[in-house]
Specification:
rod-shaped; mainly alpha; about 150 residues
Length: about 150
């Protein structure tokens, strides 16, 4: 049996050695010449990107927020915004009703100096005389007066 199989294995080996292995070697050589440098370049790029992100993370970890932005319950910055809102509302209550009333009556109403002085409304109504009464302007004037006195 060895005398039958051995010559056939030698013929098969010689065929592989002469025809197939050179093709495999040329493909492996091409891969080594072309793809290895590409993968090396990709590896270097990924290492550089990784080190850049690592340094970015280290830099961000070393940052410290100022006290007014440090999280709490609520944020200190939120408290500052709430305080500004309250002051703007106080200004609106003190300034906007007078301004609105002056615009609504076109100057025929004297602007009251104190928060509880409603004589301006009465004076404005009396000054209308024979002029046509604009109920919307009057309603806005009364609403503004109540807003000013906190009603």
């Amino acid at each position: 049996m060895a005398s039958v199989l051995l010559p056939n294995f030698r013929i098969f080996y010689n065929f592989l050695n002469e025809n197939v292995f050179p093709i495999i070697q040329s493909i492996a050589s091409w891969i080594g010449d072309r793809l290895t440098p590409a993968f090396d370049g990709l590896t270097r790029f990924l290492q550089d990107a990784t080190s850049w992100f690592r340094s970015l993370a280290d830099s961000m970890n070393s940052l410290s927020l100022p006290d007014w932005l440090t999280p709490g319950s609520p944020f200190p910055f939120t408290n500052a915004l709430v305080g500004m809102n309250e002051e703007l509302q106080k200004s609106a209550v003190n300034i906007l009703p007078e301004f609105s009333a002056q615009l609504a009556i076109n100057g025929s109403m004297p602007v009251p100096n104190t928060a509880n002085n409603n004589s301006g409304i009465i004076t404005a109504i009396n000054n209308l005389g024979n002029n046509k009464l604009d109920e919307r302007k009057l309603a806005r004037l009364i609403a503004d007066a109540f807003t000013k006195i906190g009603g």
